[in-house]
Here is the input.
Amino acid sequence: MAIEEATQTAEETQPTEAAEATEAAEAAEAGAFTVKRYPVAPGQRLNVRSGPGTNYQVVKVLPLGVRVPINCQKPGERVSGPYGTTNLWDNIANGQYVSDAYVNTGSDGYVAVRCS
Here is the structure.
């Protein structure tokens, strides 16, 4: 009987895949996963564009002192800014791009996956 109880206890304490998935979903909804945000260059009101270039429409202007998430990055028009000259553009939301030359990522290259 002691062996059965030990086996039963071990089985009860091991989470199932469904339970793990549920816990992960609940944690995500609760905001347990934080997205890394990068600072925009000081003193810059940065244009957010609908695509990776200055020829794309401005969809909004970011206020001073803001930090942005980078969901993915893609090459586009070459731009010079406080953090150098680059053709990388950062996707900060659906259909919203900023030049990486204005975002302090600490890198001259990709810091996120390439946008598809």
Observations:
- Residues 17-29 form the longest helix (13 residues).
- Strands lie at 37-39, 47-49, 58-61, 67-69, 72-81, 84-93, 96-99.
- The radius of gyration is 22 Å.
